[in-house]
């Protein structure tokens, strides 16, 4: 067992607990997702041995390969957190417990079609674009309500859980997450059960917790540096 991995995991969990206390929240209501991009499946297995059950990937091919290799770890919850292509929806749905990045009707429809009668509902979050760059992932704020309505009315096998956002690099995280929390409140007015808020990474999870984040996406602070890709 990698003792450094264990130490990093416990250190992050302690920081999450401290941030939750400072925000007057209970850390048990916050899900820590370990992002294992570029790391081998063996690292996910080590994380599982350390009690980790929520793992995130943002590249479809890597996501599918790892989930297949680790299929015997049937209590792992795989979160897809990358930009999804509609033609990969079937592969994503086959592996994912949660998809954080639904940002357009066509993707929601593709994930819906990828379901099977015996499959459980797929938990999804709507990703909102917090930048002024239309090329970034996420639905524009004015498109949030129509997208939510589409998922609720046209995608019965998708379970709308909440909202996901990434703080822009050129803005203080606290202000970005305050806007995200406002958008989340708008979403709950349409879908009262959509209470998940996926926000916060290694550099800004404290601010995300203060803004009400329920799901944190933390990578290298736990996993260590990503392997160099050739």
Features:
230 residues, alpha/beta, TIM Barrel, 8-stranded parallel sheet, 9 helices, 8 strands, 41% helix, 17% strand
Description of the structure:
This protein is of the alpha/beta class and 230 residues long. It has a single domain, classed as Alanine racemase (TIM Barrel, Alpha-Beta Barrel), CATH 3.20.20. Helices cover 41% and strands 17% of the residues. It is built from nine helices and eight strands. It has an eight-stranded parallel beta sheet. The longest helix is centred in the first third of the chain and has 20 residues, at 3-22. The radius of gyration is 17 Å and the shape is globular. The two termini are 27 Å apart.
The proportion of residues forming helix, as a percent range, comes to: 40-55%
Per the CATH scheme, the topology name is TIM Barrel
**Strand residue percentage:** 15-25%
Q: Averaged pLDDT, please? A: 95
Order of helices and strands: HEHEHEHEHEHEHEHEH
How many H/I helices? 9
> What is the CATH homology-level superfamily?
Alanine racemase
Q: Give the strand line-up of the largest sheet.
A: 7-6-5-4-3-2-1-8
The CATH class designation is Alpha Beta
Global outline: globular
Give me the oligomer status: single chain
* Secondary-structure class: alpha/beta
Radius of gyration: 17 Å
Profile the largest sheet.
Answer: 8 strands, parallel
Distance between the termini: 27 Å
The name of the CATH architecture is: Alpha-Beta Barrel
């Amino acid at each position: 067992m990698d003792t450094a991995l264990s130490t990093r995991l416990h250190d992050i969990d302690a920081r999450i607990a401290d941030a939750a206390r400072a925000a007057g929240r209970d850390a048990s209501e916050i899900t820590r997702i370990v992002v294992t991009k570029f790391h081998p499946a063996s690292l996910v297995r080590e994380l599982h041995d350390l009690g980790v059950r929520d793992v995130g990937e943002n590249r479809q091919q890597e996501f599918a390969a790892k989930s297949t290799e680790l299929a015997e770890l049937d209590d792992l919850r795989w979160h897809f957190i990358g930009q999804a292509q509609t033609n990969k929806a079937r592969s994503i749905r086959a592996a994912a417990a949660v998809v954080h990045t639904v940002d357009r009707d066509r993707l929601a429809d593709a994930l819906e079609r990828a379901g099977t009668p015996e499959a459980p509902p797929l938990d999804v979050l709507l990703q909102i674009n917090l930048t002024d760059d239309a090329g970034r992932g996420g639905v524009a704020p004015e498109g949030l309500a129509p997208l939510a309505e589409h998922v609720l009315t046209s995608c019965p096998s998708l379970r709308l859980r909440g909202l996901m956002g990434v703080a822009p690099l050129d803005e203080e995280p606290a202000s970005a997450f305050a806007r995200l929390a406002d958008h989340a409140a708008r979403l709950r007015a349409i879908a009262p059960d959509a209470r998940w808020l996926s926000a916060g990474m290694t550099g800004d999870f404290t601010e995300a917790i203060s803004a009400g984040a329920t799901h944190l996406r933390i990578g290298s602070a736990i996993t260590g540096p990503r392997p160099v890709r050739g």
